[in-house]
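In the design runs reported in the main text, the only information available to the sequence generator was the tokenized backbone. The following block is the verbatim input for one such run; it is reproduced so that readers can re-run the procedure and compare outputs position by position.
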């Protein structure tokens, strides 16, 4: 149990024990299947915790030049990099920091491949199997008109010299059964090229650490896939699965207001600044000690401290009347939430910390006025 009195408010707090539980599960899948499982930085980049990750996994995946540099300098190994579009300015640094580079289009491959020759970099191309079970368009990489990947009809029968792998990402918080169906589509459309490649990266979205995920089914699927194509190195690059339910955002009530019978507790955090995926998806996060819904005597909206009218969510039902200064803890606020924050309105950015397995608070970062100022000019 986190001792919140040892942390400032607001603060993102990751729990080492919960992280290690996820990492142990992922390592087990890796070892039993022979599949490489790497961390997608886009979901999580709290680099001071990377030494813990390195006890379980060897690599990470980057989607930009900064993430690639973070891989090399802080994760301590070169990145598997995929970006929708590389630029001449960034590509030399991308090469310095990457062991694998996946291109989004043949045009990008043709533009940059020659620079990678002789550099010990394995290049690949992103494929689009035109099948995804993701229903929210914001997260569906196969929606009609998508800018991601090349469809099978546009891929030449003989791959251009230098393409050694296929990269494919079609999942989001998905089950192994969705992967099973996706594999049928990938193999139906692209297996004709498999003899020409060395690796197949099945992207992220494999939420193997969710309580109801059928891990044994995933292991079976991956083992059978490897048996069908023994020469292929299979790679998964989940993000969320690593830090799923490993920590919270703790905040405090600053005021309680009422309008037309609706009570709002205004917090020292903001949905739009510090939990933007709640508004984007949208989804209502769990709050410790409260029920989602409007049943009960103590029903509140929770409001952010920005001036955006829509910076609130609701409703939550509490078992008591909320008081100024009271702690409000949002659960499962580590994956994606932390990496997507901003400093809109110049309001305090939550600190970042770890609750160690020994029961100690490690404060990794506190934000200051200068962090806000220096982003602005
Ligand atoms: C190319 C790619 N790889 C990996 C991931 C990580 O996915 P997730 O965090 O859902 O596992 C994403 C997420 O958008 C992605 O776009």
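Verbatim output:
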């Amino acid at each position: 149990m986190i001792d919140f009195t040892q942390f400032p408010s607001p603060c993102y707090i990751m729990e080492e024990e919960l992280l290690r539980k996820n990492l142990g599960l992922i390592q087990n899948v890796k070892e039993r299947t022979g599949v490489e499982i790497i961390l997608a930085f886009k979901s999580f980049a709290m680099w001071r915790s990377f030494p813990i990750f390195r006890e379980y996994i060897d690599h990470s995946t980057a989607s930009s030049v900064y993430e690639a540099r973070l891989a090399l300098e802080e994760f301590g190994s070169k990145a598997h990099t995929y970006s929708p579009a590389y630029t001449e300015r960034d590509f030399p640094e991308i090469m310095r920091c990457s062991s694998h580079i996946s291109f989004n289009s043949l045009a990008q491959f043709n533009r940059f491949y020659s620079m990678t020759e002789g550099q010990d970099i394995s290049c690949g191309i992103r494929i689009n199997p035109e099948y995804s079970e993701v229903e929210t368009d914001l997260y569906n990489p196969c929606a009609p008109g998508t800018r991601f990947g090349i469809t099978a009809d546009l891929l030449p029968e003989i791959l251009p010299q230098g393409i050694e792998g296929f990269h494919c990402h079609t999942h989001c918080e998905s089950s192994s059964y969705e992967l099973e169906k996706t594999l049928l589509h990938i193999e139906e459309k692209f297996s004709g090229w498999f003899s020409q490649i060395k690796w197949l990266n099945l992207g992220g979205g494999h939420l193997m650490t969710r309580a109801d995920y059928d891990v044994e089914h995933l292991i079976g699927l991956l083992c059978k896939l490897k048996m069908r194509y023994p020469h292929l190195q299979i790679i998964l690059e989940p993000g969320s699965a690593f830090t799923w339910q490993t920590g919270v955002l703790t905040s405090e009530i600053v005021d309680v207001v009422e309008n037309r019978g609706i009570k709002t507790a205004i917090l020292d955090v903001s949905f739009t600044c510090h939990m933007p995926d709640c508004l984007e998806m949208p989804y209502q996060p769990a709050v410790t000690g409260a029920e989602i819904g409007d049943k009960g005597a103590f029903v509140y909206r929770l409001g952010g401290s920005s001036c955006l009218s829509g910076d609130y969510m609701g409703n939550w039902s509490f078992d008591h009347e909320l008081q100024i200064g009271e702690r409000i803890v949002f659960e499962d606020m580590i994956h994606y939430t932390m990496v997507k924050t901003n400093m809109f309105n110049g309001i305090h950015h939550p600190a970042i910390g770890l609750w160690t397995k020994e029961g100690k608070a490690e404060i990794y970062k506190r934000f200051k006025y200068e962090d806000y100022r220096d982003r602005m000019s």
